[in-house]
Give the backbone structure.
Amino acid sequence: MRNLALLQEPKQRKLLFNAGLSWLFDAMDVGLVSFIVAALAVEWSLGAEQIGLLTAINSVGMAVGAAVAGSLADRYGRRDVLVLTLLIFSVASGLSALVTSFAVLCILRFIAGFGLGGELPVASTLVSESVPAKERGRAVVLLESFWAVGWIVAALVAYFIIPDYGWRIAFLISAVPALFALYLRKAIPDSPAFENQTIKKIPFTARMASVWSIKHRRSTIMLWVLWFTVVFSYYGMFLWLPTVMVLKGFTLVKSFQYVLIITLAQLPGYFTAAYFIEKLGRKFVLVTYLLMTAVSAIWFGLATTEGMLIAAGACLSFFNLGAWGGMYAYTPELYPTQVRSTGVGFAASFGRVGGIIGPYLVGILVARGSSLTYIFVVFFVAIVIGALAVLFLGKETKGIDPDAAAERT
């Protein structure tokens, strides 16, 4: 990848690649769940509300995990918490292959979600703190691009494995990252910013007070709105995507094939965002990509032909995941090192509340017979609110050292 080569130090590239692999495994697990629930709906005769409940429980775990891991990472270091969360979600996902009841599956998905939600903000903070300011935004967006690769792997596993070998094999495959976590413990260092802190680490209550202090309050409000609306719309739309394709009349295998095609559009979305974020700034990328996501959501909801569905879905993937990359790059830059992971973790945690509501709301609306057009209008409105929050409350952080900025205020 040309963008990856722009990182100057070999150790920075190694860190990005290793953290990216952990991100890939996260995405693979989340992606596999979206395909597995479509298969389970047939095999276990699950209703729309049960599907929504299962995906929502996964997001409850992610919300708790993001808050807890973010706080622990400011106390004990980014790397160790990253490894711990990776182990938690891998083991829980592997055990999911053995379940025989819906209730036990829900419990294991909560535990897996805890690990997933904890790993993502910690990994982005680790990478953000480990590269120079001029490459920071691009590096974090490239980290996010591994999410697209993970979804592509999930789509391939779903297309080639689930129809012939069943969903349990897919869950077993998602246990592989446990071995990677053991390697990761020795392969990467903690961030220089965390290790070189000269100020004594502050307790949790003081960190939360700082996140909501006058100098950070505007940014915190903006981030919480942004994260809520983006996660609400993403999980509401993409976890339901294979099932939506079935609802539009396609077979399970055909829906998996179309979702794989749509997922491929995520990669150029990330790469263009990685280019523009250092050229035009964080706010430009976020606002532009979010507004285009909103337009794509309406288009997808109105699509009636196969060609329109694929084109609208590809645009949805392109712009939505590009915005995700921008959001992960932007969030750590708004807090100093002492409270950074706590600030990122709680913003991500509040966003996961949207991830709980989004898929469950879709389940309720589908069960009540609401049209897909109406459902995607809801996501359109949410995404526009997120874009307006960044436009009016956000500040540009391109090339700014958060610690130096904090000292000046």
About this structure: Confidence is low (pLDDT under 50) at residues 1-6.
